[in-house]
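Table S2 (continued). Query chain:
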Amino acid sequence: PAVGPVTIAKIADFDPKADGGSGAENSKLAKRAIDSKPDTAWTTERYRKLAALGGLKPGVGLLLDLGETHRVTSVSLTLQGAPTSIEIRVPVTAADTAPMRSVSQWRKLAATDEGQGTFTIDFPAERTQFVLVYLTSLPPVGDGYFRGAVAEVSVIG
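Corresponding output:
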């Protein structure tokens, strides 16, 4: 199979109410993570006191819809701020639509607690239509606040 970038057909924020989220995490900014402009970014909301999203929920993220099932082997990211803890997840069960009720519907393929700058997270080849980039700990942005920022994301297959 060919190795190279996989087109991201759609991108959306992921902040399930069942996990303590509001159902939306700066939704209108999600497309900034795939606009090929590293100076723009999707940002999380600001959280106070704890890097772990204020202790309110396990994480927030970006849902990548590849349009159809592809073989994927890594996700490349450009982040603003450091460090950011990130998990790469795929649905537990294959489906035509992405599971949006809870992060428990997704299984972890790989993770890093030291995400910063531009880097790649590799994992064993997986066939999927949906990839979740899930932020579980955010970098400080001053005055006791924490916020994650994904400037660019791409999927390699």
